[in-house]
UniProtKB/TrEMBL annotation, chain A:
Predominant location category: nucleus
Coiled-coil ranges (or none): none
Protein name, as recorded: Origin recognition complex subunit 2
Region (Disordered): 74-114, 140-190
TrEMBL record, chain B:
Subunit structure and binding partners: Component of ORC, a complex composed of at least 6 subunits: ORC1, ORC2, ORC3, ORC4, ORC5 and ORC6. ORC is regulated in a cell-cycle dependent manner. It is sequentially assembled at the exit from anaphase of mitosis and disassembled as cells enter S phase.
CDD domains: Orc3
Gene Ontology molecular function, alphabetical: DNA replication origin binding
Biological process (GO), any one: DNA replication initiation
Function: Component of the origin recognition complex (ORC) that binds origins of replication. DNA-binding is ATP-dependent. The specific DNA sequences that define origins of replication have not been identified yet. ORC is required to assemble the pre-replication complex necessary to initiate DNA replication. Binds histone H3 and H4 trimethylation marks H3K9me3, H3K27me3 and H4K20me3.
PANTHER family per the UniProt record, alphabetical: ORIGIN RECOGNITION COMPLEX SUBUNIT 3
Keyword annotations of the record: DNA replication, DNA-binding, Nucleus, Phosphoprotein
Compartments (UniProt record): Nucleus
Name used for this protein in its record: Origin recognition complex subunit 3
Organism: Cuculus canorus (Common cuckoo)
Length: 534, 686
């Protein structure tokens, strides 16, 4: 009781001092801020216009600093969302939503209840962690409520009944706020600024993050590999297909405009939520049928600038030969395109901001490429920080025109290569990516991989199979005339390892064991497919 | 082949007009650029000549030679708009090639990570440019440049020696032509385009090495500097910078550059295409707040032109008056309908008498006649607008605190926005103008007269006369002013006589009274008249363009398009799409009020929304649980088979997809801190 109060006042004092300092600073900055506001206003006026696709959100509220969050909030929000089933519920039936509200609650809170007990046992520490009242009035109230389960239940029911009357969650929270307000009223006066500062430092003060300790394994759910995932998703109907189609048709009407602008020396970049792959594909098939074009799948995990340049020199310019460095190659391309004005090339890049292409050097090269008058670049970006890749010099080389194309389409292709969080953990690599990677290797390398795969499949019934030891493997490879020294084999294995095709483990006896971290069914599939190819 | 979507027949014509207009404007901007750089380049060229000749002179004296380890260097301060520099350097090298020396190497920091690369690049460029000069020997030299085995200073010197010797021993005719353009031993100019981004080691090494060889190789360096000349001393230690003999050159600031461009492109009656107020504002804002790049401004301007011609079918008429009249005659019926649909034309029709209204709306022939007349009006309006704007600018730009802005573009914007004489700023500036002193007024008047005389508008004869009249009157006042001064002096004398305190007070009061009630002096009267006259001019000629009929043909005013394409905000678009999918998918089920979203939103929106509630780490299994709660809740109570494995798998799959999409978008990343956890990468939101 008393001690807590003391803590609070101390915090308040320090916060006030902070505010004073801030005021000094803010005086100096006031002018600047004013100007900025003018600027924002000037730009903002024009924003709300014909464009219905609401870009009228001011920057400040989009991505601000980190603020502390409570762990249980997600579950709360989930149940709230589940409880407000939109327009389908009639206000009269108050029992029905209560039921639906309670069932998820029970399931989600089963493990949280333990945590809540812990909360009520150590109130001091937690109160210290919640020194900022203004935003946290509600949280405080909820914590005080959570001291006793019955009260919590009551509150929850209150929420339920209110929400059945079609109120927003914000309002329901307001309804359970009043009691603690009096004690905290004096603190309410504090600046919003100090709030922000406090929150920021609080969020960064403790390195410990409080999340529940549950694991996915406890859900007793089998891991999905890429194939089943794909199948399952096919079963799930795409929501709002009609609206998405409308949206895409809007974008497709821009194709001729894009062509015009590409020809006038601009390059086009598409942004917005949703996969833009289909859109670009459609653009390609409908407009670029008769012209030379190059499609770059940036999301592919092993794409490099070099491969892009190679495909330009080899396929477009019909040049055979190698270059010492990408810069030389670039120079060669530029020279060719400069000299031959009849040469035109459309380059479509899906995901210009992918892992492999976002590097400084690759962007520089691509920018220089795109600045050629007879190379027309149209690219898509997805990452929220993608525009940070470009500095002024690159931007002027790219000469972008930005187009917002929010499609809401799922990123099917793009995420299939991503070592997705939930899929990767099972260690399975998609068959498609496996074949993609291997296709780019030499036949000897493929042979080496086959040997390893076959050996692994032969031993698949052995649960304690450690993998193939390096020496044995080397012998086998030699017998099959695949390598001539263990150095070449090692070089090859390094390449496999870089592509995450194999894993090495040291056994108890210090021998290196090689293992393909792919489940057996995929491996069998792969071998069958390989056999077909040969 | 550049098809446009609309089906009007004069697409080609429109495109041709657009292209020709853009080419004209581009030429104009290039001209401007050249003019602006001329001064700078002249200075540079003379510097190069001087430095070179000095070193030649000194080469004759042994004593001096010992001292001259210094490399003549020009530091070129270009300003922060890095993107424009390329153009400047290109034209610079052209100028130098034509007037001073064929041996120029342009080096960029990104090509030169080490001294070796730098030398390679340098020698490659120099030898290639030699090949350009006399092409009949190229096999020999191409080989040399391809070998590139020993890219050392000595090879460079040998090459230089051989080249200069050769040009000397060329056939007389050849020698004459070459020596008329260049000297016998032209200097080798090395340009460092972006001095700041070179690594210090490379620069130092290069300078030290080349200073050793300065006698054999007349080297001149040019540094392109974006920040301040101090950077040279920051980058290079004293021992190295003492080897340089630096002279500073300042290029024109980009703001001045911009205002000349605006002056030449927008504030003339030459080009029929005009920018609306908001568009201009957006362009200028991008310039001032984002990049200071004139190049980007011009790019935006080009986009404006393209957009205008693309989206406005009537832009066929956006050309010179003579052509426009011809084109009006050949307008099709649908185009006439387009004209009738213009809001400004509707206003015009409504102001006419009823018979004329009917004629305008039904008869194409009559309509065309009227359009011709209106177009002519519009052209006359432009012709008058510009000089008057300049006059007004002369008056307002010298006022204290610049109520109407310092630059003419600000005034232009104000005039375009709405009736300028109704604004407060205009009011206050008139007030201030009424307090100007005479000499200022006279000079301003003279300037105005010059502007109006030079303009082609016929209507200005009268105004010029009137202004001249004012001018003479002001000059007449000169004599009278002396008399007035006498009067005031005498009254002061009276003051001094009276020493009595009481009398003094009284007389002071009297004086004050008389001052207050005193009639305005002649000068003041005249000043008032003049200001009123200017005011009337403004009211007459500076009507905002939106009030003119058919302004849509010439003015491009959809600023939102421009903003979207040039100054896009991808993060905000993502944010709205995730938080408020209704904006894009206009389905009633998605409609929600406030910050919340309904549980029927697309999966990724729900997942995003849930992740906003988490701290730095997110527990995947909690997340999945929450997600499935929401989704099953959305499917309603009839989905009582929610526990069945099949449905769960589908939800699981959907969850996986949504999470990996968020990862692709950069909201989360895998974390190794704790099993089954991901880290959040953004904060705030909702």
């Amino acid at each position: 009781g008393a001690k807590v109060r003391k803590d609070k006042t101390q915090l308040a004092d320090s916060a006030k001092r902070f505010v004073k300092k801030l005021e000094n600073i803010s005086d100096e900055e006031a002018q600047e801020i004013l100007e900025e506001k003018n600027y924002v206003a000037a730009l903002g006026i024009c924003a709300r216009g014909s464009m219905g696709n609401g870009s009228g959100v001011s920057g400040g509220e989009v991505y601000s600093f980190q603020t502390p969050k409570r762990s249980s909030k997600m579950a709360e929000l989930a149940s709230e969302l589940a409880q407000t089933p939109g327009q389908s519920v009639e206000p009269g039936h108050s029992e029905c939503p209560e039921k639906t509200g309670k069932t998820p609650q029970n399931s989600t809170w089963k493990c949280n209840s333990k945590k809540k007990e812990a909360v009520s046992a150590t109130p001091y520490r937690l109160r210290k962690r919640l020194p900022v009242p203004d935003l946290y009035l509600e949280s405080e109230s909820e914590y005080s409520a959570s001291c006793s389960e019955e009260e919590d239940e009551e509150d929850q029911q209150e929420v339920n009944t209110v929400s059945s009357g079609q109120k927003t969650p914000a309002k329901t929270k307001a309804s359970c706020m009043p009691p603690p307000r009096n004690t905290l009223a004096r603190k309410n006066k504090k600046d919003k600024m100090s709030n922000l500062v406090e929150e920021y430092f609080e969020a960064h003060s403790s390195s410990k993050v409080h999340t529940s300790d549950r694991m996915l394994q406890k859900l007793r759910k089998r891991r999905l590999d890429q194939q089943t995932l794909h199948d399952l998703l096919k079963k799930a109907p795409l929501a709002y297909a009609a609206e998405i189609k409308d949206l895409n048709q809007q974008h497709e009407s821009l194709f001729s405009k894009w062509m015009l602008q590409l020809h006038l020396g601009f390059n086009i970049v598409l942004y917005g939520l949703g996969s833009k792959r289909d859109l670009l594909e459609k653009f390609r098939t409908s407009v670029l049928q008769d012209s030379v074009h190059l499609v770059v799948n940036g999301y592919f995990p092993s794409i490099t600038v070099r491969s892009i340049l190679n495909s330009i020199t080899e396929e477009v310019l019909d040049h055979i030969g190698t270059f010492r460095s990408p810069l030389d190659q670039l120079e060669f391309i530029i020279k060719n395109f400069r000299e031959d004005s009849s040469l035109e090339l459309y380059v479509l890049i899906h995901n210009l901001d992918s892992q492999m292409l976002r590097g400084e050097r690759s962007q520089q090269i691509l920018a220089q490429l795109s600045s050629l008058p007879s190379i027309y670049l149209i690219a898509s970006i997805d990452h929220i920080n993608a525009p940070l890749m470009w500095d002024q010099a690159k931007l002027s080389l790219y000469n972008w025109l930005w187009y917002e194309t929010t499609t809401f389409k799922p990123y099917v292709e793009e995420t299939s290569y991503e070592n997705s969080l939930l899929v990767q953990q099972s260690g399975s690599l998609a068959l498609s990516s496996l074949t993609h990677v291997l296709r780019s290797l030499t036949s000897n390398a493929r042979g080496i991989f086959r040997l390893l795969a076959q050996y692994q499949l032969e031993n698949k019934d052995n649960p304690s199979y450690p993998g193939l030891s390096f020496q044995d493997f080397y012998q086998q490879c030699r017998e099959a005339f695949l390598v001539n020294s263990d150095l070449t084999l090692r070089a090859q294995l390094t390449e496999f390892r870089d592509h995450k095709l194999i894993r090495t483990k040291r056994g108890a006896d210090g021998v290196e064991y090689l293992l393909i971290p792919i489940d057996d069914s995929t491996l069998t599939d792969f071998l069958e497919k390989e056999d077909e190819d040969i | 082949f550049r098809g446009r979507t609309d089906d009007s027949e004069d697409v080609k014509l429109r495109f041709a007009t657009c292209q020709s207009l853009w080419n004209q404007m581009k030429l104009e901007t290039e001209q401007v650029q050249e003019d602006l750089n001329k001064q700078l380049f002249d200075n540079l060229v003379s510097f190069l000549r001087r430095s070179h000749s000095e070193s030649q002179e000194k080469a004759t004296e042994w004593t001096c030679q010992m001292k001259t380890r210094e490399i003549p260097t020009a530091a070129l301060v270009l300003g922060v708009n890095v993107t424009d520099h390329d153009l400047t350097f290109r034209s610079l090298s052209e100028v130098l090639q034509n007037s001073v020396t064929p041996y120029i190497a342009l080096l960029e920091a990104k090509d030169c990570p080490g001294i070796k690369n730098l030398m390679q690049k340098l020698i490659g460029q120099l030898m290639n440019c030699y090949v350009d000069v006399d092409s009949f020997e190229d096999e020999d030299y191409v080989q040399v440049s391809q070998n590139r085995i020993r890219c050392s200073m000595t090879s460079l010197i040998n090459w230089y020696g051989s080249v200069t010797k050769k040009t000397d021993s060329e056939t007389p005719s050849k020698k004459r032509t070459s020596s008329s353009r260049h000297w016998q031993s032209p200097p080798v100019v090395v340009v460092f385009k972006d001095m700041e981004s070179f690594t210090t080691r490379v620069l130092q090494d290069f300078i030290v090495i080349s200073s050793q060889h300065i006698h054999e190789l007349p080297l001149v360096l040019i540094f392109g500097i974006a920040t301040s000349p101090m950077i040279i001393h920051n980058l290079l230690p004293h021992s190295v910078s003492s080897l340089l003999c630096i002279e500073l050159f300042q290029s024109l600031s980009c703001k001045e550059h911009l205002s000349t461009i605006i002056d030449k492109l927008l504030l003339t009656a030459h080009f029929p295409f005009k920018l609306g107020e908001k568009v201009l504002q957006v362009l200028i804002n991008i310039f001032l707040y984002h990049d200071f790049s004139v190049q980007n401004f011009i790019k935006g301007f080009q986009l404006c032109i393209v957009e205008h011609f693309y989206s406005q079918p009537l832009s066929v008429l956006c050309c010179q008056l003579v052509d426009a009249k011809k084109r009006v005659n050949s307008l099709s019926h649908s185009q006439c309908e387009n004209i009738r649909r213009l809001p400004s034309f509707r206003r015009y029709v409504e102001s006419q008498v009823s018979e004329k209204q009917i004629a305008l709306l039904t008869a194409d022939g009559f309509l065309k006649e009227v359009i011709q007349k209106l177009l002519e009006d519009l052209h006359v309006y432009h012709a008058n607008y510009m000089p008057v704007l300049r006059c007004l600018h002369i008056f307002t730009s010298s006022l204290p605190k610049y109520p109407l802005g310092k630059q003419i573009r600000e005034l232009h914007c104000a005039c375009l926005e709405n009736r300028v004489w109704e604004t407060e700023e205009y009011e206050s500036s008139l007030q201030l103008a009424r307090m100007l002193n005479k000499s200022d007024l006279v000079t301003m008047l003279q300037q105005c007269v010059e502007i109006l005389m030079s303009s082609s508008g016929k209507e200005f004869d009268k105004t010029v006369e009137k202004l001249k009249e004012f001018l003479t009157q002001f000059q007449k006042l000169e004599g009278e002013a002396f008399q007035e001064r006498d009067v005031s002096v005498s009254s002061q004398k009276e003051l001094q006589k009276k020493t009595d305190l009481y009398h003094l007070q009284k007389s002071l009061l009297e004086l004050k009274e008389s001052r207050r009630s005193k009639k305005l002096t002649k000068f003041e009267v005249l000043r008032f008249e003049l200001v009123d006259y200017i005011d009337s001019l403004v009211r007459n000629y500076l009507v905002p363009a939106d009030h003119k009929t058919l302004h849509e043909i010439m003015y491009f005013n959809t600023a939102s398009v421009l903003r979207e394409h040039l100054n896009a905000a991808p993060r905000i678009a993502l944010h709205t799409a995730l938080n408020n999918p209704y904006c894009y998918l206009e389905n009633q089920a998605l409609k929600s009020d406030g910050g919340s979203i309904s549980n029927k939103a697309p999966d990724i929106c729900i997942v995003y929304k849930l992740h906003l509630e988490c701290g730095r780490l997110i527990n995947l299994s909690d997340w999945l649980e929450a997600f499935s709660t929401v989704v099953t809740g959305a499917e309603g109570p009839n989905a009582d088979a929610a526990s069945s494995d099949q449905v769960d798998d589908v939800i699981h799959a959907r969850f996986i997809r949504a999470v990996s999409e968020l990862e692709l978008l950069g909201f989360i990343k895998p974390s190794k801190q704790k099993a089954d956890h991901v880290a959040r990468l953004t904060w705030g939101g909702c």
